[in-house]
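Journal club prep — side note

Before the paper discussion, L.F. wants everyone to see what a predicted structure for a comparable chain looks like in C-alpha cell form. Sequence:
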Amino acid sequence: MAKVKLTKTEMKAQSDALKRFQRFLPMLQLKKQQLQAEIAGIAAKAEETAAREKAARAELDGWVGLFATDETQLEGLVKVKKINTGSANIADVAIPTFGSIDAETKEIDAWATPAWLDDAAEAAKNIVSLREERAVYDEQLRLVSEELQKTSQRVNLFEKVKIPECKEAIRVIKIALGDEQTAAVTRGKIAKSRSPES
C-alpha cells in the first residue's frame, strides 16, 4: 500500500475511492458471469457444429471407393470464394458471426462424369461450410475468453487489492486523526491548567 497522508482530505478521497470501487465491483462480477455463460453457450455450439461435420464426413465414408477411382474429377470441385460473416456484441466484446459461404462448384459435364459427382459436390460444400462455421465459433471463444480473463483480473484487483487498501487507509487515517484529536484535547487541558486564570 502506498503511503497515505493522515489528513481529513485524504480520508475523504479514500472514502470516495472505496465507494467507487464498491459500486463498480458488482457490475464487473455480473459481466464476468455473463461472459462465463456465453463461453459455455459458444462451446456447446462449436461442439454441435463439430458433431455435424463429423457426421457429414462419416456419410462420405461410403463414397471413398468412388473418390479413389477417379481423383482428377474431384480436383477443384468446390472452391470457397467468400465467407460471409457478421458482427455481434457480447458484453462489450465485438465477435464475428457466421452467415454462409459463397462456394463455386466446378462445372460438371453430366455426360462425361459419374452421376454421384453432383452429390459429392454438395456434400463437400456442406462440410466446408460446417468447418468455416466452427472456425468462427473458435474465434468467438478466443475473443470472449480474452475478455473474461481481463474482467477476472479487474474483479480480483478490486476485491483483493483496491478495496482492502482503501479500507486499511481509512482505518489508519481514523486512528491518526483520533490520536491527534486526543493529543489536542490533552494539550488544551494542560494549557488551561497552566494559565494564570485557573
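L.F.'s comment for the group: The chain has one domain: 8-61+78-188. Keep this in mind when we get to the figures.
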